[in-house]
Please model this.
Amino acid sequence: MTMQPAGGALLSETRPPKRSGEPAADDRFLRLSEREEGEGPARLYPLASPTWPSKALRGLLGLLAPARSACGLCGRGFAPSRTSLAGLPEELPRSWSDSVCGSCRSSIPWILRIQCQVCGRPDSCGDCCRRTSAGFIRSRSAVRYTLEMRQLLARYKYRGEEALQPWLADMLLPAYAALAAELRLADRLTGRLSDRLDPDARKGKEPFDLVTSVPVSRQRLAERGFNQAERLAASLAVRAGLTARPLLERKEERGKMSAKTRRERLIAAEGLFEAAPEAAGILRLLAARDPERRRPLRLLVVDDIYTTGGTMDHCALALQRCSPVPIDLYGLTWARA
Amino acid sequence: MKATLYLYLDADKGWLASATLDAEVDRLWRLDAEWAAEAAKEAGASPPRPAEAMLVCGAPLPLGAAYEAAASWNRHGPVPAGAACREQLLRASRPAAPGGAAPLRLPEAAEALRRLARAALAPDGPERPSGEPPVTAAMPRHGSGGAAAALARAACAAARALRGRALLRGEAQARLAAAGAGSDAALQLAALLGRLRLGGAVAAGRCQRCGSGEAQLLRTACGACGSSRCASCQACLALGRSRECGLLVLGMPAQAGRGGAGLAPPEQLPPAAERLRRWGLSPAQSAAAASALAFLERPLQPPPALGLRPRLAALMRAALPSAGLLRLPPLHRGAAAAAGRLFRRTRRHKPAEPHPSFLLWAVTGAGKTEMIFPLLESVLSRGGRALVATPRRDVVLELEPRLRRAFPDTPPVTLYGGSPQREEDGRLTLATTHQLLRFRESFDLIVLDELDAFPFAGDAMLHEAAARSGAAGSRTVLLTATPPPSLQRLARLGRLPHAKVPVRYHRHPLPVPRLLRTPSALGMAAAGRMPSSLRQAMARSLDRGAQLFVFVPAIRSAEPVARLIRKLFSDRGEVAATHSQDPERADKVVRFRQKQLRVLVTTTILERGVTIPVSDVFILDADSRIFDEASLVQSAGRAGRSAADPQGFVWFAAASPSASQKRAIRQIRLMNRAARKAGYLLSGSASSRRFHSTF
Ligand SMILES: [Zn+2]
Ligand SMILES: [Zn+2]
Ligand SMILES: [Zn+2]
Ligand SMILES: [Zn+2]
Model:
């Protein structure tokens, strides 16, 4: 609660005396910039007399109709009880399927089966054989980057519809669960007998030690107000019971990534990222927390789109360079171009 | 973005707080008398009284927080607003109190500023451990003149270019870039000169651009200002993000006439009848335009006596001058009472009266655009600013060349999402209704076309934006073929002046829709056949050479129905289906206009705007809720538009005759009757009507 009356925020404190010729800030102006409590909005035409009987009737009808809510992605009204859950990955929380309408759901191209074990591409992949240096071990993505997904992401990222964020972040969960399951399986296969009996491993402890994200430049952050990858990472960490920390910094960009060719992007990404000053310390602390661990630290790098893998790779290399302890890096992105 | 908070010592008022985009400009203005005098002289203003001292907070604050803190200081004294500080409010005396205590000494003032800044950084929580915000005393330096005149010129240019506008920082900069006046320093000096207002785009729990309240605000951690709960408005995102730490620039009201003399009186113009003649209107158009013109040129009337409810509200306000206090928890009553005087000071405004408006109810195909020409002419020729706004972009694109032809001396500035003309200025503006969010007290006449169309209909934000874009004393003309029920009621009750145009420009009656009983569209499509009545009606229309509009209520019915028609009338030309999600929609409409398509199956998206000379209309599932009275009247209005084929046929095909269908038919019949009674129909049209009804 604040002691200020509502409105009046633009009430300027600098009010020079009125002068002839130029009208000074007069009351007419003030009336527009502030609105009193209890005062209705400016109206285009007189208010029609209320039609209470029909309003009451509408209320009554509303009670009889199935509950409707606004879709979290498109905003259109729909009845959650009437839509089926068929075709949805089962790791999606119930709150997600209750908040997204059938038509939005059916437009989401989930990546359920992958072809390339390295980059998680759902169809055959030429990129991964071309790579010479591998900073990360595997990367997985939630959806294919179709036109609809591109538009959805653009609404969040560029238009700034931050209300979309929880629904987009939830969409990472199926891909995350699949990656975690792969790693748990690998742990069990390679681990010694004692490990296999380790209660942690059997309980299915999360196989990552830390979640981090691909950074945006300071300038972009000031423009946009948020780093979409960092937000996705933070939400994922909360939902999966992990910790998220930004560990990387991005230098000022030379032109937009989206306007470049594959080769240009790979070159541009080189040297674009470096570890934050506190990253080494964080990793050292993390490693020291569990001296019994027999595998390297595992970090998950989150980003919004995986295009060529260049960004992911350079982030991974930057972390490898700074880390005082051995680390394994994995990637998770919202979309796979 | 961030802004700088500072205090300055006024000889009479004591310490006052202010926030600035550029502290250096404020320092020069307040402390350097020479610089200030030069800037003021260039701007034609009198110089400010020099401040006796100035203290600047060295750590910039999130912009919204800085402006709020300054306003709070000036209102309540040197105590930051916030729950922790209520006790202090009781004890603190306002430094500006006339005859009160002497102003704080410099170190005390510095400490108070530090406290204010700290509270602004962490509004509710405990104080931040991150150390004290540094405060420095700004020193008067002399002889920094020279640049003053140039900056003052830029400030005046900025103020001129932003008259009647409400723009975010980026928009203002883009608009001012051409004049070289887009710098923060120029904006800041214009604000100091009192010719602009600067503030957070979201402030006091409300989006200051679109007026949306808390329900539309989303508070998130913000990388631009560092606040962990920076509010941004979700309602007006389409026009760029309005947020707490974003700057909103409000210009002064736009001025009509030469040098702001206001609208010239209508007596200077030739008589209305003479002016109307030049536009070549039909008798019905002319009669309606004449009464709209009379409304427009009538002198402003004193505000009508308050209705019962506002009167009650006024009474309440008089009886309870501090009604707002009741909302405070009892513990803080005392503190609140101390502040009561200050609250009351800002509680003087009456609820905003709407600008006078006039409803022009013109049937589909009446030629409503021609009717607005004399209205625009009246305002433009008197030196005023006129706006034609419509919810739909394609209508803007269609009107643009017609307005350009009608008013070659004041070509319209055309604004829509992605339009190229954004930085231009002119006295005639043509825009989509969303663009009105960027205007404030700007127009003397607002013509609102198709106010019942999406997205304007039912969007309170856009209604408010339209209302606020009117200058003091402006008039609004609402233009539609299908006024929403609330407007119809206002017109009936005599609370909304209006004129009806019951006849089309070609002076033939509107085709009256006929009812057909058929199964549902999807049912017919699934069965692969239609009842012979519908089939024969379609065959007859195709036989007479008409193109067919087939309306369906849902996207999913469009393609199946098109397939069915393709199958049943395989030799009659091409059939296509379109809807809002169809990427080829524009292309299909073009092909339909060019007669390459014979039949177009569509959802309600084409119920307005697309006019085909020889066309018949079939509305399938006419009993669907999607087809309300207005939608049916609009869709029916696609038929019989040209003088060469004024009849056309309209069929409502449905399993049952719904109330909406009956009301739509009644509305069309009433309009035809009114047209006949007024003698607007051509004499020949009676016989064709007979043919129509015996058909
Ligand atoms: Zn949806
Ligand atoms: Zn691959
Ligand atoms: Zn807003
Ligand atoms: Zn912010």
In short: DSSP finds 23 helices and 25 strands in chain B. Residues 80-100, 306-351, 686-695 of chain B have pLDDT under 50 and may be disordered. The first helix of chain B runs from residue 23 to 31. Chain B touches chain A through 92 residues (CB under 8 Å).
